[in-house]
Each structure stands twice: as structure tokens, then as C-alpha cells.
Design goal:
The protein is α/β, with parallel strands linked by helices. The protein has eleven helices and eleven strands. The protein starts with about 35 loop residues before the first strand and ends with a helix.
Length: about 350
């Protein structure tokens, strides 16, 4: 088969990997596949995409997968413009966006969206001598909206009586770029603390709230790490040695974990009013079930139901199939700390991927 390349964007910080990187990909894919496809999107998927490309290319040495972690918004735009064959996004397209189009890579207006990467969003902070704090949704909302300005505010102290909290200004760091992580974080705040967070569920940080902006996940983590009294939010796989917040769920405070993220996804329904192959999860951010961690992102793979180029369809379909397989999900869990999708969800997403042509 002739190699196929999707052009139109500069592929920076690609996560494509040589065939000798990573583990055994088993019988996923076909050794007769060949060609090149490009994807763009969520930086949260970066480590997972590295693992997925490595595993897939071991079994398919004639294939090159280039994924550029430019952010969810940029990925969706590139996919719509026809600059890439697939996108990664920390939210699905809205039904209004799908109706408006266009999707220049596709021969129809129907797209496939499947959840492939589930991860908690950690609220991270840098405070001397403190590694963990308890906070309810209202406290988090007031910190990021500028209503709570000091670390020794009574709202924080009352939930952390044993912590040594200084009389120090809080520096709240947010994503400066359009971000699905921001969308998921603010969606939690809007659902769980609507009286204190009035900015709604948004992917672009409301400028009127102030705070320090940083581009992409790596930039936010750097800003929190290099600051003093800083707090931010990021995919939990990037939390590193930073302090993290336990979030109040019901009467308990719950630490971020893959298990907690998976639990809230399984407790949430699929959005209604979408195509059969458009599987968007309507997350229940206010669940009080034991063990649920509500600040979670569900990151999607986005492709066409029908591609203009059949070669792209073949490669995207095979790559997506590997990603959602048990092996692909375990590879991401190992390298990125994500939560593997459940068997029931895998059955739904596999059916959707099978529709690609």
C-alpha cells in the first residue's frame, strides 16, 4: 500500500516511536498495513499516545503514527480543517458543533467519538511542608475564582486542622490555552459548587478571574513547581512530587486515583441525542458513591465514519482498535497512570470503531 500522509500542520513534539520501543503488541493490527497518519490534540494523552504508537508500530512496522499534543481545541480544529486524520480531545464535540461542521477529512458529516483515556485531574499545589490537603468543591471554586486569597483562610483551615498553613497569598495557576482539561475542571466546579463558581463549564479560562496562565499541561506543572504558594490543576499522571488535594465526596475526602476516575465514568450515562457511533459520556460530577473521584477527564479519539481517503480509514480504524483493546489500555495505564476502560464500555466503543470506512 502506498504511504499516506496528512499535511497542513507542523508536527511538533511528535510522540511517534520507533518499532523497538515498548512491549509486545500481540496480534493487534495487520503486518500488511503501511502508511503514515497524523493526529493532533489533547496533551493529556501525550504519554498514552507514546505507549500506543510504540505498541502499534511493533506489530505494524510499515506504519508511522504521528501525534502532536497541541491541546484539545487545536486538535479538534485541525481535524475539522482536514489537517490531520484523527484528533484526541478532552471533550467530545457538542451536538451543535457537529451540526455546524465542517469535517474536511470526512466524506460525510458523521463522526466517530469514543472514550479512550480516562484519568483523574489532580488539584496540585506547592506549599512548603504540606503534601496533602482536604477541600470541598466550594473551597476549590473560591480559590480559583479569587474569593479565597490566603492559605490560612478559615475555609481551608477548618478542613485541615492538623496542617501548618501559612499566612501566604495563594497564586492560582490556570491553563492559558484552550484546554479540555480546563473544560473538565470547570465543569466539575459548575456542577458541584454553582453558587461559588458562576463562570460555567468553559475550555478557555475567564480572564476576569485573573490568576496566572500557563500553556499546556507541562507549562502549568512548571508554573506550580517553580512558584511559591501556587495551586493548579492537571492530569494526575503529571502531578509528580507536588502536593495534591483530596476532594470531598459525600462525607469522605477522596484522593485522585485511576480507580476513582473509572468508578465515576461507570456510574455515568452516555449522552442522549447523538449518533450511534458518537459515544460521549455525561459525567455525574456530584455523585456521592463511595470511592468516586469526580474531577475526571474522559479523553476521546475522534475520527470519521467515512473518510475521503480509504487508506486513512484503514489505518485509523486499526490504530483505534488497538488503543481501546485490553492490551492498549494496559499500556496506557502502565506508562500514563490512566484508568483502563471497563469491558462493557469497550464493547460499545469497539462497535463504533468498526463503523469506520
Amino acid at each position: 500500500m502506498k504511504a499516506v500522509a496528512i499535511g497542513g500542520i507542523a508536527l511538533l513534539a511528535l510522540t511517534s516511536c520507533a518499532a523497538n520501543e515498548g512491549g509486545n503488541s500481540g496480534d493487534q493490527g495487520s503486518s500488511e498495513l503501511s502508511g503514515t497518519i497524523a493526529g493532533s490534540g489533547a496533551s493529556s494523552q501525550g504519554a498514552a499516545q507514546t505507549a500506543w504508537t510504540a505498541g502499534f508500530q511493533i506489530a505494524n512496522s510499515g506504519v508511522t503514527i504521528n501525534y502532536s499534543p497541541d491541546g484539545s481545541g487545536a486538535g479538534r480544529e485541525s481535524f475539522q480543517q482536514g489537517a490531520v486524520a484523527f484528533a484526541g480531545s478532552d471533550r467530545a464535540f457538542t451536538t451543535d458543533e457537529i451540526a455546524a461542521g465542517p469535517f474536511n477529512t470526512c466524506s460525510t458529516g458523521n463522526i466517530v467519538e469514543v472514550p479512550a483515556y480516562i484519568s483523574p485531574i489532580a488539584v496540585v499545589f506547592n506549599l512548603d511542608g504540606v503534601t496533602s490537603l482536604n477541600m470541598d468543591a466550594d473551597t476549590i471554586a473560591k480559590i480559583f475564582s479569587g474569593q479565597i486569597k490566603k492559605w490560612n483562610d478559615p475555609a481551608i483551615v477548618s478542613q485541615n486542622p492538623d496542617a501548618k498553613l501559612p499566612d501566604l497569598a495563594i497564586s492560582a495557576v490556570h491553563r492559558a490555552d484552550k484546554s479540555g482539561t480546563t473544560g473538565n475542571f470547570t465543569d466539575y466546579l459548575a456542577a458541584a459548587a454553582p453558587q461559588s463558581w458562576t463562570a460555567g463549564s468553559v475550555e478557555e479560562w475567564p480572564t476576569e478571574l485573573g490568576g496566572e496562565g500557563a500553556n499546556q499541561t507541562s507549562g502549568l506543572i512548571d508554573a506550580v513547581t517553580n512558584g511559591k504558594g501556587t495551586i493548579g490543576y492537571a492530569d494526575s499522571s503529571k502531578a509528580g512530587d507536588l502536593g495534591t488535594v483530596k476532594v470531598k465526596v459525600g462525607d469522605a475526602y477522596v484522593e485522585h486515583s485511576p480507580e476513582g476516575a473509572s468508578a465515576v465514568v461507570d456510574a455515568s450515562p452516555v449522552e442522549e441525542g447523538r449518533g450511534a457511533n458518537d459515544i460521549a459520556i455525561k459525567l455525574d460530577r456530584t455523585s456521592t458513591e463511595a470511592g468516586v473521584y469526580p474531577i475526571v477527564l474522559v479523553s476521546y479519539l475522534i475520527g470519521c465514519e467515512q473518510y475521503k481517503d480509504a487508506a486513512n480509514a484503514e489505518l485509523v480504524k486499526a490504530y483505534f482498535t488497538y488503543i481501546v483493546s485490553e492490551e492498549g489500555q494496559q499500556a496506557a495505564a502502565k506508562d500514563a497512570g490512566s484508568a483502563p476502560i471497563s469491558a462493557a464500555l469497550r464493547e460499545k466503543v469497539t462497535t463504533a470503531i468498526d463503523a469506520i470506512k
